[in-house]
Amino acid sequence: MATHGQLSALVTLIADATKVVESHYQKFPEKPYVPSLDDVEPHPLDDAISDKELRNAIQTIEGACAQLTATVARPSHTLVNRFMTVFETNALDVAVRFKVADILQEKPEGMHISEIGKKSGAEERKIGRILRCLASKHCFREVTKDVFANNRLSMLLLSTNPVSSIGLHFTDECQKSAVLLSETLADPEWGHSYSPYQCAFNKYSGYPKGMFDHFEGVESEEGAKRGARFGVGAIGWGTATEAGALIHHFPWNDLPKGTSVCDIGGGVGNVTMQLAHAYPSLKLVLQDLPERIQQAKNEVWPKECPLAIQEDRILFEPINFLTESPVKACDIYYLKHIIHDWPDADCIKILSGVKKAMAPHSRVMIHEYILQYANRVPADKSDFQQAPEPLLPNYGAGRIRQYNLDIDMMAVLNSEERTVEHFKRLGEAAGLKFTRVWDLGESGLVEFGLP
Length: 451
What we know:
By secondary structure, the protein is α/β, with parallel strands linked by helices. It is 48% helix and 11% strand. InterPro entries: COMT-like (IPR016461), COMT_C (IPR001077), COMT_dimerisation (IPR012967), SAM-dependent_MTases_sf (IPR029063), WH-like_DNA-bd_sf (IPR036388), WH_DNA-bd_sf (IPR036390).
């Protein structure tokens, strides 16, 4: 397709997708419009699970806008701007650590940088420059010169919002590890290794074991704090990535009463809590390392889901899934964002341990990003519906999060996101039989059973 044809086609995709988005917002009588970025009040759709039409429309807009700007701008302009996104990330880190969003809540109409500086402890001109950078990318709002207020995006940076916790995880250990990714890949030994103890995180931290060992806090109080922060941040990650699509797009209501679901490596149980609220007929098991299980049992669930505890619908059991099998004979073994944390050899260990616990009727559900290639293939050769042309078939920037996460996994754990074919190989090596893929929108469920 000629360039001028591509531009027109991309603009048409954006216009058509925008109409779809507007039609979905119009379904809410109390707020029948797409909120302005200056609007700090939440919209009912903010935490709702998007249906397929809305999700595809948003991904189309994101992908087409990015592809359009990359097409029309000079290549040097585009690449230099991308190199410099590291400073936006650092500015977000400053805003969260200095709790600027919390401070601005005291004056919703706007606060001068002199007052922000006094309350945060940051030098006023420097914090002002940080906020202006972020406001230029639509996070915070400069009301008048040097006077800033919260907006629709910065409200998620409040210290009470789990999104700020997952943000600190990315700006702290993840970014500091990623800085050393090139050096790690160039290392004659580590560059070709898939050991979780020979990755950029180890170079950055000097810690000899894996990041999740560090989070257990046995050797360091700082590691324990990061682990607890990650546990809370997982809730924010789940909201951002619409992990709750599992609750709506999998036929839980069709399962017999008393169906047992074992959430392996489920952290404090974000997904399990959603299942407990939505489907009280399920019997739930939450398994993770002892520190997270204690946090879930003693802090999170009594506050967020006490009824499940009172009705004995949830069992908390610690596990080291690399050396132990989960609770035996559950109907469903659910692993969300577990397999992507480990290299192939360890994934096979984990799945083999699950297989040992399975009854003949048991199913394994691996909930992960499922990577698509960036090249277009015939429709009958693709596991997923491809984006409309001239978009990249995987939606490009519209689904960039999973590809960014793939690089993050390389940096902090020496692991990876995987394709359907890769998941099938892992399951087969563990003695499991591939059944099907459930499309959950941003992510998917890869289902296995016993042969």
